[in-house]
Amino acid sequence: MTLPCLRTERAKMLCTTLVMGALGCAGPSTQAPSRSETTPAAKVGEAQPAAEGTPIPDRIEVTILRLTPSVLHSPPFAQHCGETFLYVTAGKASVTGTDRVDLAVGDAVRLPRDTGVILGGDGTVVVFRVHGSTPGPCHEHGLEGPRSTSNAVEHRNAGGKLRVTILFEGDGQPLAGGLSVLRADRDFAVPEHTHEASDETLYILGGEGTMRVGTAEIAVAPGRVIHVPRGTVHDLRPRGTQPLHALQVYSPSGPEQRFKNEDTPSRSVGP
Fold first, then answer.
1. Whole-prediction pTM value?
2. Which of 106, 157, 197, 256 is the most exposed place for a label (fewest CB within 10 A)?
3. What's residue 253's pLDDT?
4. Which domains does the chain have, with CATH numbers?
């Protein structure tokens, strides 16, 4: 499924959609998927199908947009108390709603709810769209950001082996989704644990390893989406020579708050 695009006559759309879930979900799901979802990165112009035999979560979608200057995109906006986040992984982008916001690598925005925006630029953007699951009242909001890993607080955990930059979180009330950026040393392992009330979705930017999600063994590699349903035991075992670099969304937000409780925060040094 590709996102709607506004094109010039000579323009060619270069966008790839990795979809986890159905568009237009009217509310929160009451049943957690029994297995995890992993989607390898697709080539430009190709839709990547869901992994065979794996249930598709109905709570979150992850889309990769490869932008060209001659093409304008209209990314999906949040509905029904949901959230939509954009994160730039390469090049530059701009988001235009009531105002225009220019984005560079490592920048993220939270799209307004129930209002469309126009996305342009020359780069690559990861779009997370979380369907409504906020445990409480939700409120309309405008375009928020940019928030950047270049100047946000980086929370250091495990003696500095794990660094977490929280870009969007609830302010006293959980959001339907919270966006963070993870960096970890190449030998950093995550022991088995669960998040009883939140799903976890990872988009891997760098690093290699293996995650055990329930009974499944999942390869961690750049360009891969990994979905961990709430209440599912999971871990991470590193492999290779490259440090881990990933985007993380908890839906609803909340579990990311534990990263604030360890070590001394420092300033982030890059995307």
1. 0.78
2. 197
3. 86
4. 5-25+32-147 (2.60.120.10), 153-267 (2.60.120.10)
